[in-house]
């Protein structure tokens, strides 16, 4: 996952909001009721603009029922301060039964437990039970990319504020233009749609292995059929690239591609995409520059294995390895070893 370059002025906004609130509080010192309201307002502002990204120290998640796939994805969500600002403003369900089945609310409870606790790791049991109601079962290896889509759909459906759904779309959604043409007549159709991840196969059309992420991006142009294609219109603030590390062999057997794949810390899509691959103006493409934010890595086979996440703190600018309950700071060299390298360090 990549984040667009540049830093937000969140801390300044919070400082200004708190300063204005405290000035107002000074004017009503003799009114205890008003003072309490203002104090609550300061706490609310701190919550809205709060940073989940390593407030004190990195907190792990215990593995419950082979939940490394869930833990890795949750850590990527929670370390994204742009996502946690949205999550902290959700509408809390009124009834306990609704709260148990509400994915955004259970994610918020888990985030707060991680932020407020002093333990090295917490148990994501309540969220895991919540997801089991939507056929996301424990003790089964799930694909992280598929789980990302499942969580995304549940969050969008269960967030009651339209403005938050819109912000969530702006944070993660890729917009594309689909172009269809009829072979029998001159009819052509263009329509816009969206996708959550940018899928990149690791094999070219001749089944040859592609060696770098930059080459993968430069060759991106997934054909709908022999008479259709896709073009990029908009890339989000957090761009998620899905490396399709598998291929089909005889008898529909799926084989994992485990070769080494180097990737950069920053990527300018203007430098790798051609005009035939995008349909965007210069203002849009000016924001197509990304810094690497997180890598979800898998070791093992298609049917069995283990997930962990390497995430760069957006506030500290340091890399951490989140391996279930164990969290440690790592170097960029460690991160570069995550895909197919013999020196992979968990």
TrEMBL record:
**Which species does the entry assign this protein to?**
Amazona collaria (yellow-billed parrot)
Q: Which Pfam families match?
A: UCH (PF00443)
Q: Give any single GO term for biological process.
A: protein deubiquitination
Q: What Gene Ontology terms describe where this protein resides (cellular component)?
A: cytosol; nucleus
Q: What is the name attached to this protein's record? A: USP domain-containing protein
Q: Where is the composition biased (Basic and acidic residues)?
A: 1-26
Query: What is the annotated signal peptide range for this record?
Result: none
Query: Which residue numbers delimit the USP domain?
Result: 59-346
**Record GO terms (molecular function):** cysteine-type deubiquitinase activity
Coiled-coil parts of chain: none
Span list, region Disordered: 1-30
